[in-house]
């Protein structure tokens, strides 16, 4: 079974571990550079992207993970994990010194944090998800980001309101070794996103 790391500095680590194990992976919690040795995939869970980035910097895993992404390690980012994969954040949070929040990058997209507004900070919806038809994906959004702009190499997998409607907000993307969703499959019974990620790992 492939060994898949789960970034375990903050956020919903346990749910992803469970799902990964359900779809046939061995899992390892990632907190130090040494934990990264030998992993065949990595999941970046939801949580708070600013806190996660700061902790990764402090723990010395920011640059090693960037390097692994560049080398082609399959990575799946959910919610805050999507933000951490994005090359660009619109109106990023600034720290006390005025520095914008960091990301690992690698995914040629611009994301907007907390994009769905206050009254809809959390909501659930059934989405059409490319490659998983005909059954919709039940998606839970929790203070979720949206992809505002996606570069030419980025495949759009899901939009709120349906894939056919160009106006729908982008909430699922794939680009090479990177998969990302605005929503949290790991809080539902929806294991197909993790399955898709396992296929990406197997193909590599
Ligand atoms: N709003 C959070 C952030 O910007 C993401 C929320 C989540 O991961 N559920 O990091």
Structure, described:
By secondary structure, this protein is α/β, with parallel strands linked by helices. The chain has a single domain, classed as Rossmann fold (3-Layer(aba) Sandwich), CATH 3.40.50. Helix content is 24%, strand content 30%. The chain is built from five helices and twelve strands. The protein has helices spanning 13-22, 49-59, 62-71, 80-85, 192-203; strands at 3-7, 26-30, 41-44, 75-78, 86-90, 107-112, 122-127, 137-142, 146-150, 155-159, 170-175, 178-181. The strands form three sheets. Strands 2-1-3-4-12-11-10 form a seven-stranded mixed β-sheet. The radius of gyration is 16 Å and the shape is globular. Glutamine binds at residues 46-49, 79-80, 83, 113-114, 142-143.
Please give the count of helices.
Answer: 5
| Count of all domains | 1
CATH architecture tag: 3-Layer(aba) Sandwich
> Number of DSSP strands?
12
Here the CATH topology equals Rossmann fold
Q: Give the strand order, joined by hyphens, for the main sheet.
A: 2-1-3-4-12-11-10
DSSP helix fraction:
10-25%
Low-confidence stretches: none
The CATH superfamily name is Class I glutamine amidotransferase (GATase) domain
Gyration radius, rounded: 16 Å
Element string (H = helix, E = strand): EHEEHHEHEEEEEEEEH
| Main sheet: strands, sense, barrel | 7 strands, mixed
Oligomeric composition of the shown chains: single chain
Helix/strand/pairing category: alpha/beta
CATH C-level label: Alpha Beta
Bound molecules: glutamine
- Our measurement of the CA-to-CA distance between the termini, rounded to an integer number of angstroms, reads 14 Å
Judging from the principal axes of the Cα atoms, what is the shape?
globular
Give the overall average pLDDT: 95
Q: How large a portion of the residues is in β-strands, by DSSP E?
A: 25-35%
GO biological process, one term: pyridoxal phosphate biosynthetic process
Active site: 79, 184, 186
Organism: Falsarthrobacter nasiphocae
EC number: 4.3.3.6, 3.5.1.2
């Amino acid at each position: 079974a492939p060994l898949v790391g789960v970034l375990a500095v903050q956020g919903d680590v346990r749910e992803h571990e469970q799902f990964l194990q359900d779809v046939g992976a061995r899992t390892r919690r990632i907190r130090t550079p040494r934990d990264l040795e030998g992993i065949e995939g990595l999941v970046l869970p939801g949580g708070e992207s600013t806190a996660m980035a700061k902790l990764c910097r402090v723990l010395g895993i920011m640059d090693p993970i960037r390097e692994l992404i560049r080398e082609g390690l399959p990575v799946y980012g959910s919610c805050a994990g999507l933000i951490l994969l994005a090359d660009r954040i619109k109106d990023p949070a600034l720290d006390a010194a005025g520095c914008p929040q960091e990301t690992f990058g690698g995914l040629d997209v611009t994301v907007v944090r907390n994009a769905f507004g206050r009254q809809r900070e959390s909501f659930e919806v059934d989405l059409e998800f490319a490659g998983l038809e005909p059954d919709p994906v039940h998606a839970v959004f929790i203070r979720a980001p949206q992809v505002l702009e996606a570069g030419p190499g980025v495949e759009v997998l899901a939009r709120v309101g349906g894939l056919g409607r160009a106006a729908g907000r982008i909430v699922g993307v794939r680009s090479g070794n990177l998969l990302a969703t605005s929503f949290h499959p790991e809080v539902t019974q929806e294991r197909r996103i993790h399955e898709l990620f396992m296929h990406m790992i197997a193909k590599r």
